[in-house]
Design goal:
This protein is α+β, with helices and mostly antiparallel strands and about 425 residues long. The protein folds into 3 domains: about 180 residues, no CATH class; about 140 residues; about 70 residues, no CATH class. It has 9 helices and 9 strands. The protein has a 9-stranded mixed sheet, covered by helices on one side. A hairpin with a 4-residue loop joins β2 and β3. α8 runs antiparallel to α9. The chain is rod-shaped, with a radius of gyration of 46 Å.
Length: about 425
């Protein structure tokens, strides 16, 4: 038996190729690129746009149902990646100008093609990788490239480069990142650029949960207050009508909380996931502090971490409030069930009393029935005896009737009891 005779798992090749699906590009200074991240759920339209661009420049098009593409165009390179909820377009070219951000790589693409891309911009930045062995002399000179904004930066890759950014959106609608290349290797430069782009993209994606968290925080506060009121009323009032009203209010609160959990749960989970990726990418930079400048890690901890914690806090509040609602609901339903059981017990007791009363009435009616039926029976017997007397039979009518009284009473009583027993057997 040879290795070729072994049966492969249907997904083996696909799973193995997954780790090589999105390789780092080799890059060298001087380089300029524009990175655009679009929130979109239409990958087919994105592929159609890329194929149209490839046909326009005579470049090989991507295959169907792919999530990654790199194309070498005459004046630029295009890297396209499809992710779960967004897509990225990275356009790069060799940089000729020594002045950072004087031009952009995006200008090499047709304007109408850019305008036709599906989705909404969540990140758009210009990055330049320049050979500056000694770096800028001071931060003031560096800030001129960032519209005089305060710049954060650090040495990365064990001192092989410096990375700078102000994290502002400039007049052209883009963020700016400058990388000073000291002695980066080609693959090392590609990995560094890719990490920087991912940090910026995930930073904005992580912040998508913040407006939602602020909005739902007010709703959760309102629901929390109403739940506390219901709990207090539950402890103070015991009437059935009030409990039914509390149950209706509790159901409304539960529906609102579940709505928040359904609409915001994914977003809050995504925020935590993106923040974890940011922390991992920053650690991979291997930052070294530059005197007078805030590092990327410090900036993220100070500005991004509070937003992430807010989202996590709202998510925790939703879970805690949902658990409290469940406990109060169980308590309220238990009290309602106990009240129902008490009502059923009282109802059964009332039915027992009615049954006993009906039995006594029935016995009384039976006694009266014996008397009435016996009276009418004796009357009929008297008429019969009078008829016999008219026929010439000498009878003492009063004597015979008097003697017949006990026998008729016994006969009537026996007949009534036999009928009752027969009816009871039929009802069983």
């Amino acid at each position: 038996m040879t290795i070729s005779n072994l049966k492969n798992h249907p997904q083996r090749i696909i799973l193995n190729n997954e780790v090589h699906a999105r390789p780092y590009q080799m890059m060298s200074a001087p380089l300029r690129l524009t990175h655009v991240a679009l929130l979109s759920d239409d990958s087919n339209k994105e592929l159609d746009a890329i194929r149209a661009l490839c046909e326009r420049y005579g470049v090989n098009s991507p295959n169907q149902d792919v999530s990654f593409y790199i194309g070498d165009f005459p004046l630029f390179k295009l890297r396209w990646e499809r992710h779960t909820e967004f897509s990225t377009y990275t356009i790069s070219e060799t940089c000729i100008s020594s002045t950072p951000f004087k031009e952009t790589a995006l200008s090499k693409l047709p304007i109408e093609w850019i305008a036709g891309l599906p989705g909404e911009v969540i990140t758009m930045l210009n990055l330049e990788l320049l050979d500056i062995p000694s770096g800028y002399r001071d931060l003031e000179g560096l800030s001129e490239s960032f519209s005089s904004n305060t710049v954060a930066g650090s040495e990365v890759s064990d001192g092989a480069a410096r990375v700078w950014s102000d994290f502002h959106i400039h007049a052209d609608g883009c963020n700016r990142i400058l990388i000073e290349n000291h002695h980066l290797r080609y693959r090392q430069a590609g990995r560094l650029v890719q990490r920087i782009l991912e940090i910026e993209t995930y930073r904005m994606l992580a912040l998508l949960g913040l407006p939602l968290a602020r909005h739902y925080s007010l709703d959760l506060t309102d629901c929390d207050s109403k739940l506390e009121t219901i709990t207090q009323q539950l402890a103070l009032h015991r009437d059935d009508e009030n409990e039914q009203q509390l149950l209706d209010e509790l159901s409304w609160i539960a529906a609102n909380v579940e709505h928040i959990a359904a609409t915001g749960g994914y977003r809050f989970s995504a925020t935590s996931a993106y923040y974890g990726l940011i922390q991992r990418r920053i650690s991979e930079l291997r930052e070294q502090r530059i005197e007078g400048a805030q590092s990327f890690n410090e900036f993220m901890e100070r500005r991004l971490e509070p937003a992430v914690r807010t989202c996590e806090s709202v998510s925790d509040r939703v879970k805690a409030l949902s658990n409290r609602i469940a406990r109060v609901s169980n308590l309220l339903r238990t009290r309602i069930n106990i009240n129902l059981e008490a009502q059923n017990r009282d109802l059964l007791r009332s039915m027992d009393r009615r049954a006993a009363m009906q039995l006594r009435l029935q016995e009384m009616v039976e006694g009266l029935s014996v008397v009435v039926l016996s009276y009418y029976s004796l009357g009929l017997l008297g008429y019969a005896l009078k008829g016999l007397k008219q026929l010439g039979i000498d009878l003492n009518t009063d004597l015979v009737v008097g003697i017949s009284v006990p026998f008729i009473v016994i006969a009537v009583l026996t007949s009534l009891r036999m009928n009752r027993r027969r009816l009871e057997k039929k009802s069983e």
